[in-house]
């Protein structure tokens, strides 16, 4: 959700699980090659899916991850809702 901040491994897992449970049909998805800069990496993600509420949507987003001690410590997603 836009502006939503989630902390803790279990809460992040539940947020992702909730998104997937709202998908009725995943028609296609693609993840681009990562770009690494220091402790960060980014990748483009594209989805064509039908949501249980909201119908079919094509989405593109840029995902930015921060790594600390070999684990993802934070994630940010940048996308438009009005596609």
Describe what this molecule looks like in 3D.
- With 83 residues, the protein is of the alpha+beta class.
- The chain has a single domain (9-78), classed as Nuclear Transport Factor 2, Chain: A, CATH 3.10.450.
- The protein is built from one helix and five strands; from the N terminus they run αβββββ.
- It has one helix at residues 9-21, and strands spanning 23-31, 35-37, 40-51, 55-68, 71-78.
- Strands 1, 2, 3, 4 and 5 form a five-stranded antiparallel β-sheet that branches.
- Strand 3 and strand 4 form a beta hairpin.
- It is globular, with a radius of gyration of 14 Å.
- It starts with 8 loop residues before the first helix and ends in a 5-residue tail after the last strand.
- The mean pLDDT is 88.
β-sheet strand percentage:
over 45%
- End-to-end gap: 15 Å
Largest sheet: 5 strands, antiparallel
H/I helix tally:
1
- CATH topology annotation: Nuclear Transport Factor 2, Chain: A
From the alpha-carbon coordinates, what is the Rg to the nearest angstrom?
14 Å
Features:
Nuclear Transport Factor 2, Chain: A, 83 residues, single chain, alpha+beta, 5-stranded antiparallel beta sheet
Reconstruct the topology from this structure.
Elements (H helix, E strand, L loop, with lengths): L8 H13 L1 E9 L3 E3 L2 E12 L3 E14 L2 E8 L5
Antiparallel strand pairs: 1-3, 2-3, 3-4, 4-5
Brief account:
With 83 residues, the protein is of the alpha+beta class. The chain is 16% helix and 55% strand. The longest helix is centred in the first third of the chain and has 13 residues.
